[in-house]
Amino acid sequence: MWSGRFRQPLDPSFEKWQRSFGFDRRLLSFELQASAAHARALSHAGVLTPDELNQIERGLEQIAARAESAPEFLDDPEAEDVHHFVEKQLVKIVGDAGFKLHSGRSRNEQIATDLRMFVRAACDEISEALAELMSAFVNRAEQARDSAMPAYTHTQPAEPVLVAHWLLAYVEMLLRDTERLADCRRRANFCPLGSAAVAGSTLPLDRHSMAVELGFAAPTPNSIDATADRDFIIEFVSALSLLMLHLSRWTEEMLLFSSREYGFIRLPEAYSTGSSAMPQKMNGDLLELIRGKAGRVIGDLTALLVITKGIPLAYDKDLQECQEPLFHAVDVVLSLMPLATGWMKAAEFDLPRMREAAQTGCLNAFAAATYLTNKGVPFRIAHELVGKAVCLALQKQCELQELSLQELRKLDAHFDGDFFDFVKLENVLAIHNVPGGTAPARVQEAIASARKRIAQSREEAHAHA
Questions:
Q1: Which of 70, 123, 291, 402 is the most buried if burial means most Cβ atoms within 10 Å?
Q2: Which residues are catalytic?
Q3: Interior angle at CA 169, CA 367 and CA 133, nearest 5
């Protein structure tokens, strides 16, 4: 494609080493779509005759059909990249008319366009997988009904919450991930076609028509930026890194809660493995691998940042190195999302044990302080009084509600007989009756809201299909 300038052949090792077709072949479908749009723009500009356009369109369709029916078709040891491969095959099919397709364009704009189309499609696919995972969380939350468990701060038991409230916390994380993907998609959705190598095409191409035809919002506004920009990739992989961070936090908690010391969760056998040495073991390998793969996706983001941080405008060959971290991050996320969803559907919660844990360890202490506050005691003083009551309960090896009224009144006269009902589990949950709180009525509202928001995210993803 560029040999006319050179008097000597490339070193064979370098020529093979610098190729990208081994990994950018996965962009073939986007390359063919973009090439067809460019061909039609060339026809409208008078560069291609109607017959040449027809030949090129049919040739591109044949390449797509053959690649789908015979994967070995892509095993081309001579193709430098996906763009070279398409041109080679097109010329084989239609002859010299295939060479005219490259009029007024550059591989710099082609790869920028293909990658934007890839990121768009990946955003939609991952958003759909996220909707499935979030629905699994919401279903489990609904099934848990009024079951309670301890919530933790500083990894120490803090207050009772509904199991559903705990599960919905992960839904909120994943909804933010979905929103980030949608936002990233909007910023990526501008078409570089017509930017050429750096200064813009020398032909009067209708950039707006090409953009609309390919589903973009508009053409990119600056040809230099269009060929140099990889922000959309970095932003996308950053969103995937946050998603993996959230999944890693989830796996960590599931692993802890499935340990004998907690006993809140029974690992599903279909997603676990055993030990080659210890017959009794069942290990949460799916969870551990997701936790480990989070590090690799975060590594992909780091690689992208380091690759691009020192590149001057506009296109430089370093940018070719952005593709493999992008592809890897997408492959990791798409491969594990259905497995995480399957795990979430199959795991068993020991709801009685969780409820028991929610009623031990003086987890109703904040509610007890609230009781005194409702009686007119300033909160700081109420906090200190209940702290003393907790010390007494620990000394007696009992719970707050097991102290006698006489013992409580020695601490403060505001304690009365209604205290014991106030600090029962059901009331402790119910008094958190604010939007976003764990009161049962609020949690039911949150479940309904989550279902609505998941449906909206699905609709948005499907609208792009």
A1: 123
A2: 154, 275
A3: 150
